[in-house]
Amino acid sequence: MSIEHPTQSSSIVDVLETVLDKGVVIAGDIRVGLADVELLTIKIRLIVASVDKAKEIGMDWWETDPYLNSKAAEADTKALEKENQQLQNRIEQLENSMQRMYNHQK
Amino acid sequence: MEELLYLYGVTWKEEAQETDMTQWRGVDDSHHLFHIELGNLAAVVSFVDESEFGEEVLEEKTNEMEWLRKKAFRHHEVLLQLNDGMTLIPMKFATIFKKEENLQHKAAVYETEWKIILQQLQGTEEWNVKIYNRSDLLKEHTAARHPEVMKRKEDIAQMSKGMQYLQTKKLDSFIQEIVSQEQETYAGNLHHRFKEFCVDTNSKKVWNKNVTGKDEEMCWNGAYLLKKEQVEPFLEQVTTAQENGRDAGWMIEVTGPWPPYHFSDTKTVSGVEG
Question: What is the pTM of this model?
Answer without folding.
Answer: 0.76
